[in-house]
């Protein structure tokens, strides 16, 4: 092979890998992402039902947590204006409490009940998930320090 | 007083770094030996000053000097001594100080061990290294000073985040930083080569051990971080494709590519420009990782506190270094001469394929990490990208790479014979196929993908061993002579085999645990028994305990297999008093390579029972044992300094450093 042919082989190989990986990324980006919605957006019907994975963020509504027998938990996520009922089977994070910020990940059923397969709360006392902060800010009920409420001191 | 000394030492280190970033580079340009000669002593003094500063902060933590804001916010006098010391870097300011300390350590290491470097190259490398030091010392002094005082001094501190009160904090960040920051050396060498416009195989011979050392540390850091998250967070997962994890994984992927391309450059004097580019990209991704974690763009357990000024500052550093080095690359790369030629099917060709796939995989992780942020910044839409995305992008790119790995070491340099290699590997291939079929049969129509994954893992492990056996020539020279030859193989050959087999071991663990894991969640009361996998776990009752800065509710459990007691489990839920923060401590029992993993949820309303989540995780420890094999491989290869990895024959006479290899055909 000449130098030119070798270079062409290399370029063709690089091009193939690049094209395949770009294709994979585009395919995954169109079907395998999770959209974030606030309870109000869901109430207004802006969120897709069925297969689309969603994350909803807000506060755990006071008095809404119901523990069934077994590990099933029902609670409502609220942005103080609208609520979304959530069911979840599993262990809730350590810092999951009523009135505290939470992000639930899963799918929205046709009955409007959100089935979560993952529930995230804060990592520590000073920290609230950014999505929750944004959700509350959107409703004008955010009372933090404006800097993202990461640090209380 | 001691804290002020620490602060002052940091300022002095900055001044020295400024000197080191200018004078040696001018000296190299003018070929002035006196100007170049100042770099090594300055680099060493800088290390001493930064170490002094770090010691001063450590002292403040050890004596619980709460007049220092940083200590007040992150420590507590009742905390065990180990966590007082590790708490030094369990916060933003302290961890940046550790970052700079390690940077200075690597700079001093070049000064110490770089005795046989050409003087101008050494001066330029130390100069470039000092640029990075200047940037990060400025960052610390202007936005993240750990020595700020608080008056009046509080009586007690606010304690460290309980999740960080673990032996993991003593190990994970220093190792990770040794890896991240270690790549700064490859970067400094690359930029120095571009400044000089000259690069040869000798350059690669110096760069490769540094890269290898950084890679070993980064492997250790990531692996340790993964195991820490696995046992501490109580979610039972070991990798979440969290942006912070990706931030450390990207330099690892591209660093692995660099490791292999430096091999080609060292051995064959080819792929020069590409190697320089990879060296720049690797450290750029390390910087990007530092930016993502330290700027507060991402909220995670790693981002201790956020301050917009810091984000902007690191972003500026990022733009200057990445933009500057890439611009320099664009200007100067053409001055580097192209090296040896090779056929597409050859050792070089295989390493190019490795590089292509690793780079593409890095790019897919980069897109998955940055795309959500970019989208939110541009359109305001919030999305998150998780495991499903990476399974569909990263996964398919890894499969051809892993399939190709065993071929690489068998191929000859310059021009290889794929059929001859296939003949040598058919036994390994046969074993992999047999294992795949056996798994399909044993799981009776279970997931075929899992069987194929296990087959691929077998292929990697057996293929790595096959290379050693082939080089020992058991077939030609008989058993006894074969053993002698095997024992006489260079360490680098064992290094390659161990690292490649480690990949297979990790893959086996990943496939086994993601396919055959059993999980159960149930409410248990005293005397209840639950079945998980082959085990019966009975709940023997609660106990309340208090220790140090926390109190905890412990659930005593007994695991039985076939009626025999195999382990006692004591998972607990803790409340750390100072921060009133609850954590969950999982109970983990290792049996063979598998683990039984038990965590607690909430107690029942009547406080007589508790939600328990149990996993049986088959072969899960192989995930980390495989990374240990990779590290061992790297260390073995590193200890074999005189021999170059992949030499076709175990040539005893290693070329002297400085000898230029014959270029190409």
UniProtKB/TrEMBL annotation, chain A:
GO terms for biological process: cytochrome complex assembly; protein-heme linkage. It comes from the Bacteria. It comes from Methylobrevis albus. Pfam families: CcmE (PF03100). One of its GO terms (cellular component) is plasma membrane. InterPro entries: CcmE (IPR004329), CcmE-like_sf (IPR036127), NA-bd_OB-fold (IPR012340). This is Cytochrome c-type biogenesis protein CcmE. GO terms for molecular function: heme binding; metal ion binding. It is a single-pass type II membrane protein. Residues 1-7 are cytoplasmic. Heme chaperone required for the biogenesis of c-type cytochromes. Transiently binds heme delivered by CcmC and transfers the heme to apo-cytochromes in a process facilitated by CcmF and CcmH. Heme binds at residues 123, 127. Keywords: Cell membrane, Cytochrome c-type biogenesis, Heme, Iron, Membrane, Metal-binding, Signal-anchor, Transmembrane, Transmembrane helix. Belongs to the CcmE/CycJ family. It is found in: Cell inner membrane; Cell membrane.
TrEMBL record, chain B:
PANTHER family: CYTOCHROME C ASSEMBLY PROTEIN-RELATED, CYTOCHROME C-TYPE BIOGENESIS PROTEIN CCMF. Its main location: membrane. GO terms for cellular component: plasma membrane. Belongs to the CcmF/CycK/Ccl1/NrfE/CcsA family. Coiled coil: none annotated. The keyword Transcription regulation does not apply. NCBIfam families: nrfE, PRK10369.1. This is Heme lyase CcmF/NrfE family subunit. Residues 89-295 form the Cytochrome c assembly protein domain. The keyword Hydrolase does not apply. Required for the biogenesis of c-type cytochromes. Possible subunit of a heme lyase. It comes from the Bacteria. It comes from Methylobrevis albus. One of its GO terms (biological process) is cytochrome complex assembly. The lineage of its organism: Bacteria, Pseudomonadati, Pseudomonadota, Alphaproteobacteria, Hyphomicrobiales. The chain crosses the membrane at residues 6-26, 38-62, 96-114, 126-148, 175-195, 207-229, 249-266, 273-292, 312-331, 352-374, 394-413, 425-442, 448-472, 493-516, 619-639. It is a multi-pass membrane protein. GO terms for molecular function: heme binding; heme transmembrane transporter activity; lyase activity. It is found in: Cell inner membrane. Keywords: Cell inner membrane, Cell membrane, Cytochrome c-type biogenesis, Lyase, Membrane, Transmembrane, Transmembrane helix. Residues 315-641 form the Cytochrome c-type biogenesis protein CcmF C-terminal domain.
């Amino acid at each position: 092979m000449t130098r030119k042919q070798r270079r062409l082989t290399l370029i063709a190989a690089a091009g193939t890998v690049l094209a395949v990986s770009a294709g994979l990324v585009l395919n995954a980006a169109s079907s395998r992402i999770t959209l974030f919605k606030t309870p109000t957006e869901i109430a207004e019907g802006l969120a897709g039902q069925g297969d689309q994975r969603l994350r909803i963020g807000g506060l755990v509504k006071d008095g809404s947590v119901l523990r069934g027998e077994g590990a099933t938990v029902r609670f409502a996520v609220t942005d103080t204006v609208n609520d979304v009922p959530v069911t979840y089977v599993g262990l809730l994070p350590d810092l999951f409490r009523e009135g505290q910020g939470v992000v639930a990940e899963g799918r929205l059923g046709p009955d409007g009940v959100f089935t979560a397969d993952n529930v995230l709360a804060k990592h520590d006392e000073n920290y609230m998930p950014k999505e929750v902060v944004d959700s509350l800010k959107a409703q004008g009920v955010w009372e933090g320090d404006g800097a993202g409420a990461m640090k209380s001191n | 007083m001691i804290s002020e000394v620490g602060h002052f030492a940091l300022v002095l280190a900055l001044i020295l770094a400024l000197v080191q970033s200018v004078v040696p580079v001018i000296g190299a340009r003018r070929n002035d030996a006196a100007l170049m000669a100042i770099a090594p002593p300055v680099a060493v003094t800088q290390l001493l000053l930064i170490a002094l500063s770090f010691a001063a902060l450590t002292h403040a933590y050890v004596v619980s000097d709460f007049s220092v804001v940083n200590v007040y916010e992150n420590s507590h006098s009742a905390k065990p001594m180990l966590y007082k010391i590790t708490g030094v870097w369990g916060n933003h300011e302290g961890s940046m100080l550790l970052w700079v300390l390690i940077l200075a350590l690597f700079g001093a290491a070049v000064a110490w061990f770089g005795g046989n470097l050409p003087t101008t190259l050494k001066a330029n490398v130390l100069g470039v290294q000092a640029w990075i030091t200047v940037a990060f010392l400025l960052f610390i002094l202007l936005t993240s000073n750990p020595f700020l005082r608080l008056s009046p001094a509080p009586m007690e501190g606010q304690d460290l985040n309980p999740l960080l009160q673990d032996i993991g904090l003593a190990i994970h960040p220093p190792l990770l930083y040794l890896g991240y920051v270690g790549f700064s050396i490859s970067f400094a060498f690359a930029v120095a080569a571009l400044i000089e416009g000259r690069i040869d195989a000798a350059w690669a011979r110096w760069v490769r051990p540094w890269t290898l050392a950084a890679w070993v540390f980064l492997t250790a850091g990531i692996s340790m971080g993964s195991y820490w998250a696995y046992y501490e967070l109580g979610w039972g997962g070991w990798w979440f494709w969290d942006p912070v994890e990706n931030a450390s994984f990207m330099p690892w992927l591209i660093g692995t590519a660099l490791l292999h391309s430096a091999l080609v450059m060292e051995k064959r004097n080819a792929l020069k420009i590409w190697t320089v580019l990879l060296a720049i990209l690797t450290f750029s991704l390390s910087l990007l990782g530092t930016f993502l974690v330290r700027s507060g763009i991402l909220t995670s357990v790693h981002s201790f506190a956020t301050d917009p000024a810091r984000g902007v500052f690191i972003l500026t550093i990022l733009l200057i270094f990445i933009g500057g080095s890439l611009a320099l690359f664009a200007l100067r790369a053409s001055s580097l001469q192209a090296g040896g030629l090779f056929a597409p099917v050859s050792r070089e060709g295989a390493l190019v394929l490795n590089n292509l796939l690793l780079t593409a995989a890095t790019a897919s992780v980069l897109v998955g990490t940055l795309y959500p942020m970019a989208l939110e910044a541009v359109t305001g839409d919030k999305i998150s990208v998780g495991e499903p995305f990476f399974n569909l992008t990263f996964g398919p790119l890894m499969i051809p790479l892993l399939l190709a790995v065993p071929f690489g070491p068998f191929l000859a340099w310059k021009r290889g014979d794929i059929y001859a290699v296939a003949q040598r590997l058919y036994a390994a291939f046969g074993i992999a196929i047999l294992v795949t079929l056996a798994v399909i049969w044993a799981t009776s129509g279970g997931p075929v993908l899992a069987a194929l994954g296990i087959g691929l893992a077998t292929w990697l492990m057996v293929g790595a061993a096959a290379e050693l056996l082939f080089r020992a020539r058991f077939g030609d020279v008989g058993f006894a002579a074969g053993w002698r030859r095997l024992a006489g193989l260079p360490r680098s050959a064992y290094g390659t085999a161990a690292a490649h087999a480690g990949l297979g071991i990790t893959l086996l663990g990943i496939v086994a645990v993601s396919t055959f894991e059993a999980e159960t969640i149930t409410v248990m009361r005293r005397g209840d028994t639950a079945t998980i996998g082959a085990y019966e776990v009975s709940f023997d009752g609660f106990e309340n305990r208090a220790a140090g800065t926390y109190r905890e509710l412990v659930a005593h459990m007994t695991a039985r297999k076939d009626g025999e007691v195999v382990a006692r489990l004591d998972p607990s839920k803790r409340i750390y008093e100072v921060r009133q923060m609850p954590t969950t401590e999982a109970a983990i029992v290792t049996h063979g390579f598998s683990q039984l993993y038990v965590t607690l949820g909430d107690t029942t309303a009547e406080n007589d029972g508790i939600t328990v989540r149990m996993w049986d995780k088959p072969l899960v420890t192989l995930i980390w044992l495989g990374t240990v094999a990779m590290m061992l491989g790297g260390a073995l290869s590193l200890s074999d300094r005189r021999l170059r990895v992949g030499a076709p024959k175990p040539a005893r006479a290693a070329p002297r450093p400085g000898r230029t290899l014959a270029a190409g055909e």
